[in-house]
Design brief:
mainly beta, OB fold (Dihydrolipoamide Acetyltransferase, E2P), 2,3-Dihydroxybiphenyl 1,2-Dioxygenase, domain 1, Signal recognition particle alu RNA binding heterodimer, srp9/1, 3 domains, four-stranded mixed sheet, 2 helices, 10% helix
Length: 204
């Protein structure tokens, strides 16, 4: 029985898509889900399924949970929503998954970014100040791991973006480079980290 990862969900209409071993997305309906309520599914969940052939093409049937995803969403306050969506979709390879007035969700793998206009921004530091007074992202480094770091680095260079720190080997077993998004958020683009240490967990 093949395994896949849920890549898209439409809770309102009761359907979603799961990746197959070839990297393509297969449609599934809420009636195709077994054992787990459709409402409990989330993007990134690993599932097993049966491949079914229908008049509309292949789809996934008898979907069953294999491993639940742990998903992180980070919301960024942006000054120009259209410009930021373009940067994350066209430059960093995210996919737009939801759009609301002043708010757009983009996703790459298990990472979801909420891009929100400044008029939706709230922070205690803004009580008596405007968003334009802040330096965005200070003290925060966002990390995107990609398997094809050399190709990704070349694509960023070809796009004409300024690279803040060049591609280099790091002592923790990864290669990375750094860049800023249109609002100044600091990104480290990294190859998957090669963990050389194991953390022993002892029981009391």
């Amino acid at each position: 029985m093949p395994q896949g990862v849920i890549t898209r969900l439409n809770p309102a209409r009761g359907f979603g898509f799961v990746s197959n071993p070839e990297g393509n997305d297969l449609f599934f309906h809420r009636t195709n889900v077994r054992d787990t309520p459709f409402s409990k599914l989330q993007i990134g969940d690993r599932v097993t399924y049966d491949l079914q052939h229908t008049d509309r093409g292949p789809r996934a049937g008898n979907l069953q949970m294999f491993a639940s995803a742990v998903q992180l969403q980070v919301n960024l306050a942006v000054s120009d929503l259209s410009r930021s969506v373009g940067f994350y979709v066209q430059t960093l390879g995210f996919r737009q998954v939801a759009e609301h007035p002043g708010y757009t969700l983009v996703q790459r793998g298990a990472l979801v970014l909420g891009l929100k206009m400044d008029d939706l921004l709230w922070h205690p530091a803004l009580k008596d100040r405007s968003a334009s007074d802040l330096v965005r992202g200070v003290g925060t480094e966002l990390v995107l791991e990609v398997s094809d770091i050399d190709e990704f680095h070349a694509a960023i260079q070809n796009a004409g973006l300024v690279i803040q720190e060049p591609l280099r080997e790091q002592p923790w077993g990864a290669r990375d480079f750094r860049l800023l998004d249109p609002d100044g958020y600091y990104w480290r683009i990294s190859s998957p980290r090669q963990l050389t240490e194991q953390i022993a967990i002892s029981e009391d």
